[in-house]
Amino acid sequence: MLKGFLPSQHVKSIFEITPQSLKEKGIKAIITDLDNTLVEWDRPAATPKLIKWIDGMRNEGILVTIVSNNNEQRVKSFSDPLKIPFIFRAKKPMGNAFRKAIKAMGTQKSETVVIGDQLLTDIFGGNRNGFHTILVVPVAQSDGFFTKFNRKIERRILSSFRKKGMLNWEDPK
Prior knowledge:
The chain is an alpha/beta fold. It has 6 helices and 6 strands. The radius of gyration is 15 Å and the shape is globular.
């Protein structure tokens, strides 16, 4: 049961994910979470470093779509200036938003990676829908109300993975 929460990969930040590393795996597109994956959950806009990362993906032909459980105003105000397609109120880990994203990008599951900071939504959702998944350490050490509850469960799952030698994870303090 817990294997559904085990990411295909894990990294400290999205900045460790390069177009070259994705292309080596046959990846043509990214479905990424927004809050605490790309920026802090309460940061309204992208950082210059994030803009450079997104531009680097685009320049190499890697498509990017934001799939977030957050509301339309939050996701739209972040995504529109970057000209990134998005899906809000995605209801992750359910699969509809993931399927909608790959249909819009014109890719297959095998060509698309799901990146996120939460096991219970991003990684479980990506895994159960057949995607390569990459878990990132959360950008911020604080979370919104609902995410705080999820983090408690995630810490137990991550601890179990660590004890079994399945995952080396830096738990944000």
